[in-house]
Amino acid sequence: MERLAVAKVNLGLSLLGRRPDGYHELHTLFAALTFGDRLYLEPIPQGIEFRGRYGKRNLAYRAAALYLERAGFPGGVRIVLEKALPEGAGLGGGSSDAAQVLLGLKELYPAEVDLFALALSLGADVPFFLLGGGAEARGIGERLRPLALPPLPVVVFAPGLRLPTPRVYGEVKPHDFAPELPVEEILGALARGEEPPYWNSLEGPAFRLYPELKEVKARLRGLGLKGVLMTGSGSAFFGLAESEEHAEAVVKALRHRGFVRKGILGGPHVPSGNGAFPL
Ligand SMILES: C[C@@](CO)(OP(=O)(O)O)[C@H](O)COP(=O)(O)OP(=O)(O)OC[C@H]1O[C@@H](n2ccc(N)nc2=O)[C@H](O)[C@@H]1O
Ligand SMILES: Nc1ncnc2c1ncn2[C@@H]1O[C@H](COP(=O)(O)OP(=O)(O)O)[C@@H](O)[C@H]1O
Predict the structure, then answer these.
(1) Is residue 37 among the annotated active site residues?
(2) Which part of the chain is the GHMP kinase N-terminal domain (predicted)?
(3) What string of DSSP letters covers 214-233?
(4) Prediction pTM value
């Protein structure tokens, strides 16, 4: 079985405060995109044969180990992971890989296993990737409400700077906290092709760590993209293109400077019925 583990961007991310356990409470809009890593899953009699980086620490491997254990060891799986997404870029590649392994194994070995609970134990972004499409998220990303997003062309650019998530959260100061995102206004602006009134509270901390990221943002704006924003904890940025042709031209202009791809907001069509967590 072949599966596409798509990237995500955060159409705004607001840090509302810090929880007693040290994690940050956030409000964000997740948008799946149409490109990503490829995974090949094949049933084998027992165990996990894994081809990809990090061995047993890979989130895809850990997802398989968890699912097979919870399902009562119904059989094994061979997993080949072909990475296309840069790591530590805020595109959620590892989380997306893990979600596709969970969904794939549920198809190969159906069992009464709560995928959302397993997903959350693997990482805060993993539950979203079980749903795909678009979603409003709260908590640390686990309270999800699906959202319909206009299928706009976007360009993602990662400058080749790896920004580990804990490093960026570690740099957050009280003045980085902000109110909730104006969700209706953001959706309205997207639908009208206007500059969305969103922000990413992690841009301040990331820019303090790596001031050169400000130039990356300015360069994307200079190419005519709207709503240019860092995604998640960075270091990738995205922007909204006027058309597929505009997106293609931006990709050409940036292709020697880092990872650059065009995609469509909301991702490929996902069959409904995955359910959701209430906000
Ligand atoms: C920023 C976001 C936005 O979608 O995604 P990415 O950009 O990484 O894809 C997420 O909040 C990434 O959450 P998650 O994937 O769970 O982060 P992890 O790497 O597990 O967390 C690493 C560390 O970051 C801090 N952390 C993480 C999430 C959160 N809401 N508050 C935090 O303070 C914690 O110190 C944690 O130990
Ligand atoms: N399948 C995987 N793909 C990418 N990274 C993985 C994977 N499994 C574990 N990791 C670890 O998780 C970190 C975060 O990866 P990733 O999800 O791609 O970035 P981000 O959290 O910035 O969106 C990587 O730096 C790597 O150490």
Answers:
(1) no
(2) 58-133
(3) HHHHHHHHHTT-EEEEE-TT
(4) 0.94
